[in-house]
Amino acid sequence: MTVDIAEFNRLAVPGLEALTKLLVGGAADYAPAPEDRRPFQVGWGLVAALHRQAAAVVTLHSKGLGHEAAPNRRLMVEYVAHLQWLVRDGEKAVDSMNKAHQFKHGGLRQAADDGGYKYDSEAADAVRDAVIPSNPTNHLSQMNALAKSLGGGLFESYVGETQLSHATLTAAGCFYRESDDTIELSLTPTYGIDGDPMEASPYMAFFFLLFGMIAFNDLMVGSPWTNDLKAIGDAAGLAGAI
């Protein structure tokens, strides 16, 4: 079966535009009561960041830099996973994210101390001394564990994008070919396969934004985007996504 990437990308354009219209359409009107708002609030931050990453992926692709958008696509997978985690585990997920933030903030402070940098010690103390309940979901702050627990291809997508998101031999190998006594060097990446898998970047951006917004929809009172998200997914060839 031949996949028409150009057609998928064509469908992604109106899809991304429609998703953007939903995002600017007043999500705050569907915020839960203050005592139940933490997952919604964190979720909004994640979905807003996810939207900007989608824009970055499309922009890079338009400049011939789809290969270089791997870190952005990888981050989109992370945002989608964390949104789905919020839907599944709610307050427990937020507590685990806070616990992870506290730990990482401690590492940042240590690095600043070791480097002799100045910072607001009172604010840093507040993060260090915050009492955050422990719960069984804390291990899901590790992306591999979270993605595996959620399924749906998130782990595979994350691992795949990771290969091109760091200084790996896989990333380096995209720029040279050798055979016998000859070596060919290139300033543009090649993959040793037919076609360029990075050409699908716009559709991938649409795909991950759609699924991130499907998750955020469940964090709003009454899931107000359901019908719109279904129509957008159907029009882009993702019937049954919601």
Count the helices. How many? 10
In helices, the fraction of residues equals: 55-70%
Oligomer: single chain
The first-to-last residue Cα distance is 25 Å
General description of the model:
- The chain has helices at residues 5-23, 38-62, 70-89, 91-115, 121-129, 143-150, 154-162, 169-173, 201-217, 226-235; strands at 176-179, 182-185.
- 31% of the residues are buried.
- The chain contains 10 helices and 2 strands; from the N terminus they run ααααααααββαα.
- The protein is mainly α and 242 residues long.
- A two-stranded antiparallel sheet has the order 1-2.
- The mean pLDDT is 95.
Task: Name the features.
single chain; 242 residues; mainly alpha; two-stranded antiparallel ribbon; 10 helices; 2 strands; 61% helix; 3% strand
